[in-house]
Amino acid sequence: MNSELVWRKSSYSGSAGGECVEAATSPATAHVLIRDSKDKPGPHLTLTPSTWAAFVRYAASAPARP
């Protein structure tokens, strides 16, 4: 299944590596998969599209942390 996935990360992540998450949509299930960009073969979270949308809304509305 992982060979079918197209992983993306935010353009705000920069190119220095750092602490990034990547997201992909499963063609088979439409679920959103989330992984740590520093541990590509490692575990990932699987979210329903509605849960992913709720997370993105929360992240966009949360105050920035120093």
From TrEMBL:
Record's protein name: DUF397 domain-containing protein
All copies of domain DUF397, residue ranges: 5-59
Pfam family, one: DUF397
InterPro entries xref list: DUF397
Protein species of origin: Streptomyces noursei
